[in-house]
């Protein structure tokens, strides 16, 4: 039974919450092709607000050859590549200080270790995973990449340092004292590390690997959604999706037209708000307000008293998306990347319902 404090509506993000996150595919692509970890996320996020990824998620452009040409161009932006190395890597800044992962949308939400990872002592205490040493060009720890920031979900990404090139000593042959003094601006400039060549990224191949990865349901959140869906009558809150999405070409198999209902996230919701269909993206407050309007209307049509933001619980894996929801009055649940079962336990506490099977519950205690 639900409690008197149970929410009237529950809103779910899709990528990285109900289904697996495409950012796992990004990390795999970077590792396989010896691309510095975080570069792809950096390039996409820093192309906002009018990068080709963002335009696609707002439904402003079609998913065609023009999009893929533009997406490739965003991934080969020389200015951003230089900034990535000089402003970020050399100064040891965290990506969250220079990039807004929110711009990646739900199709690019970070996920950490395998979703069935068991809790450690750290899990049972602080929810912040310990930091690890950065390793250039090594497969990144996705738990490290997925700490809270402001992209949407606070998603913080850390990068490695770039080795400093030794300065050219040939210019100081006339005296030793000069080398002991502070370098002039010109000399300092001459010691800057040389910029590596831009990685050769096949944007179309990368895109489809991301989309393919996000076809699989999350092993914890999605079953919980199905459990909620089965609740009878007034015991069940209104279920809604609030997701940054893309529109696939007509007839494309990823439109899920032939998917069985039990494996299609879209079919589990009373309301589905897709960014590409409404022309708004999270974390824009307007898309949240639109969601509340639709929830309010549906509740009143069912004989209820209506829904306000404070009547809603919102689950997302992106910090900035959660921040906007909280600012508007919603209760929020952070879906920890790679440990999505935690979010299910929080949702159980918020609703007073049992949403996890006993076998899973025992394995996660």
Kindly estimate the percentage of residues that lie in beta strands according to DSSP. Answer: 5-15%
Q: Describe the biggest sheet?
A: 5 strands, parallel
SS-based class: alpha/beta
How far is the N terminus from the C terminus? Answer: 22 Å
Number of helices: 16
Poorly predicted regions = 93-103, 105-181, 186-191
Percent helix range: 25-40%
Give the SSE order as H and E letters: EHHHHHHHHHHHEEHHEHEHH
What would the keywords be for this entry?
16 helices, alpha/beta
In words, what does this structure look like?
The protein has 16 helices and five strands. Helix 1 crosses helix 10. It has 365 residues and is α/β, with parallel strands linked by helices. About 26% of the residues have low confidence. 36% of the residues lie in helices and 6% in strands.
Q: Gist?
A:
With 365 residues, the chain is α/β, with parallel strands linked by helices.
Topology, element by element:
Layout lengths: L8 E4 L10 H10 L6 H8 L5 H6 L7 H11 L2 H12 L31 H4 L17 H4 L31 H4 L4 H6 L12 H11 L7 H9 L8 E6 L27 E4 H4 L6 H17 L10 E5 L2 H9 L3 E4 L6 H11 L6 H7 L1
Parallel strand pairs: 1-2, 1-4, 2-3, 4-5
Helix pairs in contact: 1-10
């Amino acid at each position: 039974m639900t409690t008197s404090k149970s929410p009237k509506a529950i809103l779910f993000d899709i990528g990285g919450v109900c289904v697996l996150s495409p950012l796992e595919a990004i990390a795999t692509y970077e590792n396989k092709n010896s691309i510095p970890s975080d570069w792809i996320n950096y390039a996409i996020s820093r192309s906002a607000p009018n990068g080709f990824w963002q335009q696609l998620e707002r439904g402003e452009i079609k998913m065609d050859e023009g999009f893929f040409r533009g997406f490739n161009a965003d991934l080969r932006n020389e200015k951003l590549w230089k900034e990535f190395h000089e402003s970020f890597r050399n100064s040891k800044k965290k990506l969250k200080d220079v990039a807004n992962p929110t711009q990646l949308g739900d199709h690019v939400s970070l996920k950490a270790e395998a979703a069935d990872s068991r809790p450690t002592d750290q899990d049972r205490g602080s929810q912040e995973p310990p930091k690890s040493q950065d390793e250039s060009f090594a497969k990144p720890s996705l738990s490290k990449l997925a700490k809270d920031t402001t992209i949407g979900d606070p998603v913080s990404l850390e990068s490695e340092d770039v080795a400093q090139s030794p300065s050219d000593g040939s210019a100081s042959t006339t005296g030793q004292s000069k080398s002991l003094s502070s370098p002039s601006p010109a000399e300092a400039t001459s010691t800057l590390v040389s910029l590596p060549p831009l990685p050769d990224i096949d944007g179309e191949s990368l895109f489809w690997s991301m989309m393919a990865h996000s076809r699989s349901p999350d092993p914890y959140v999605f079953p919980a959604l199905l459990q909620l869906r089965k609740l009878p009558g007034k015991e069940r809150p209104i279920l809604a999706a609030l997701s940054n999405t893309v529109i696939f070409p007509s007839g494309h198999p990823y439109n899920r037209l032939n998917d069985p209902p039990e494996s299609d996230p879209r079919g589990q919701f009373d309301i589905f708000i897709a960014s590409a269909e409404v022309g708004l993206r999270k974390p824009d407050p307007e898309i949240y307000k639109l969601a509340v309007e639709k929830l309010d209307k549906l509740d009143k049509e069912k004989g209820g008293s209506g829904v306000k933001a404070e009547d809603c619980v919102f689950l997302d894996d992106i910090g900035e998306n959660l921040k906007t929801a909280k600012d508007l009055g919603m209760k929020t649940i952070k879906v920890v990347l790679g440990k999505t079962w935690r979010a299910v336990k929080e949702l159980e506490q918020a609703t007073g319902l049992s949403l996890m099977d006993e076998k899973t519950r025992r394995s996660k205690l």
